[in-house]
Amino acid sequence: MRKVGIPIFLIGLALTVIKTITFFTKEKVVDLGKVEITTKKAHHLDISPIFGICLMGIGGIVFWKTFNPQ
Question: Would you place residue 3 in the very low, low, confident or very high pLDDT band (cuts 50, 70, 90)?
Answer without folding.
Answer: confident
